[in-house]
Specification:
Strand content of chain A: 5-15%
Largest interface: A-B, 58 and 58 residues
CATH architecture of the largest domain in chain A: 3-Layer(aba) Sandwich
CATH topology of the largest domain in chain A: Aspartate Aminotransferase, domain 2
CATH superfamily of the largest domain in chain A: Type I PLP-dependent aspartate aminotransferase-like (Major domain)
Number of domains of chain A: 2
Number of strands of chain A: 13
Order of helices and strands of chain A: HHEHHHEHEHEHEHEEHEHHHEEHEEEH
Helix content of chain A: 40-55%
CATH class of the largest domain in chain A: Alpha Beta
Number of helices of chain A: 15
Oligomer: homodimer
Structural class of chain A: alpha/beta
Chain lengths: 392, 392
């Protein structure tokens, strides 16, 4: 391993090797903080800028959780008793989302929904834009054909609609996947273009629209919330997937939902997904839909977006790196040609205790990249200084 | 609704109707305590004898949890960060179970594993003993044939091995399901007979052995723990499923595991199940495998078995009901012919605040039954007195 950025001592070289091995073992996802602690207790991670979440919303949630669940002793019943069944939780979300509960499917994290949808609704051929979240192609069952639409670097990895439509016409996939904003580049498709896509691809049986990062996107100066969930009645081929881990930093709770045609929800519930939510996820959804909580959440959502915009502006000023446009809470950064992504990540972790994501496993990216999460403004400043320091 | 046991006032009649409707909506599973609270807040449930768990183990777990997770503030990281991936948690369980981690699959509750196994390994025909846990036939996908082996009432719903083997020979299912002890009757198959079954059904591709209630079974006076998990290397067709909710009363956490052939674990992980454990489930498994915890757990496990045996003896003395032999933590009880199960359950709930399970939705039961969970010795006494009171 060679790293032109930095000189390591022997101890650090050993640790760097261990980090790289751990990364390799984890495959196309980063090792979790727990895995790091278990296997590399000598490592001191100060800032987890791999983890894509709004830290202010985490604090907000934890304040409510501490007051209502920990301090009251109600934690016991959340752990002890069976959580409600899927459609009972759908009912809780229904009026909040302005969608009939029969169109809502609750998942053990969005990841379970991705798995369920691809396993049950994709019949022959799936079209996936790359770079993307790897589970979309990894979870595809043997026998299903995967077609990749490679987004172009020279176009900032933005989806080109006309070419996309041509590809759909010629390949005739039964499933297409759109993540908006896209992961790992943060590229955003405006609402009117999403509508245009939905209008154009009516022949595609299943249109997966993953809005896991949509709370960080904006189309006006008020940062009004955006979602296409209510379009599901108009477009029965639409399957909208939403993770809650990104908005609230509650990846440990596992909470996500989907909005889709009533028949699809029934088809899934008829073959399983009975108690797939845990007690804390049920509490989360009850809280999330409460007016008092929603009000506070919107404030911290907007604060976080504004700070992320500022973070991106500052990153752009660092010479030697290329910062891709993002309307998500993370930024795709291209490194200079002579620096390997894994070396940069290891250096940042060893010298500054900052954990960011390599993108070497991401198919469809041309060059050496990292994906950097926006954290608190204080942490963002430390991240900025640390990156500058590595380039000195 | 007529109930010869009891006279209701008007308020109670309304409530009784609501309870029955809620039961109907929940289908083949009982409404959760949360669902009851949400929809019937006027109902006062004092003892949940529908819920199959060891309450002493719940206390033990919660003591550790409070000390290690709540009081230290570590709850935050359990909620915030991604839990470890499936095989990292398998490694934690590996030495405790004395099984290679590659043979262990972690589930979001046993229910997720039942779903995964039946959806992915059952190809054409499944043989299910009834009465049983309904998910085993409900989760079967369209196109798969279900053969039922009806256990006989006159034989106390015990599995008759020779007839079972004949049926397997003639029907040639690719999957068979054995729950031991069986749900809802508690009937137990001795270890030497499980071995005999495994020896005889080597031609059956998938043998599901559900040991979710095995911690409550015993074959000697020391109540030594029983499990067939280590047989998976000898019998590659064996898929052993284990819920943890029954042993610890932590249904809200969703934790279960399976032991199966390494190729099967890989097949499942190749198509999903990436972050299907939540942070609390990961903590649970780390705690469960610790020597100090295991020592205390075994004490409360034995205490609970002994009290359950006593509870069964006392129930047998009540005239008019038939108590079926059980080596689980619940008891199947047949009611007198003139009493409907739902009426008995409603009366017990309205008059005594005790929630027990009707068995009217259980296919394969001939007569009117309830399934009664063993709770603490104090609660068991109240349950006994309340049932006696209804029969006065």
């Amino acid at each position: 391993m060679q790293n032109p950025l930095i000189k390591y001592n022997e101890e650090e070289i050993t640790l760097a090797h261990k980090i790289n091995n751990l990364k390799k073992e984890a495959g196309s996802h980063s090792p979790s903080i727990f895995t790091f602690k278990q296997k590399l207790p000598e490592l001191n991670i100060k800032i987890d800028a791999c983890f894509l979440s709004n830290p202010y919303a985490t604090d907000l949630f934890l304040n409510y959780f501490t007051k209502e669940i920990i301090n009251t002793g109600k934690i016991r019943e959340l752990l002890e008793f069976y959580p409600s069944q899927n459609q009972v939780i759908s009912e809780i979300l229904s009026s909040f989302l302005n969608v009939n509960y029969k169109n809502i499917f609750i998942g053990n994290g969005a990841i379970e929904i991705i798995q369920a949808v691809i396993h049950n609704f994709t019949k022959k051929k799936i079209l996936i834009n790359i770079p993307t979240f790897s589970s979309y192609y990894e979870f595809v069952k043997p026998g299903i054909e995967i077609i990749y639409n490679t987004l172009k670097k020279e176009n900032n990895y933005q989806l080109e609609l006309d070419k996309y439509f041509d590809l759909i016409k010629s390949e005739k996939p039964d499933t297409i996947v759109i993540i908006n904003p896209n992961n790992p580049d943060g590229g955003y498709i405006e609402s009117h273009d999403i509508r245009k896509i939905l209008e154009t691809v009516r022949e595609v049986a299943t249109v997966i629209l993953d809005e896991s990062f949509i709370h960080f996107a904006y189309e006006n100066d008020n940062f009004d919330p955006i979602s296409m969930a209510d379009l599901v009645t108009e477009y029965p081929n639409l399957v909208l997937i939403k993770s809650m881990s990104k908005d609230f930093g509650i990846a440990g709770i596992r909470a996500g939902y989907a909005v889709m045609d009533e028949k699809r929800v029934k088809e899934l519930l008829d073959i399983g997904f009975l108690w797939n939510s845990n007690g804390l996820a049920e509490y989360f959804f009850r809280l999330y839909t409460r007016a008092d909580f929603a009000y506070h959440y919107n404030s911290v959502r907007i604060r976080y977006i504004m700070e992320t915009i500022e973070f991106i502006e500052q990153l752009k000023k660092i010479k030697g790196i290329r910062v891709y446009p993002s309307r998500a809470n993370f930024i795709l950064i291209e490194l200079p040609e002579n620096i390997k992504s894994i070396d940069f990540v290891t250096a940042l972790l060893l010298k500054h205790g900052i954990y960011v994501r390599t993108c070497e496993d991401k198919i469809g990216l041309d060059g050496e990249y990292i994906r950097l999460a926006s954290r608190t403004s204080k942490e963002n400043k430390i991240i900025l200084e640390s990156i500058k320091n590595l380039f000195k």
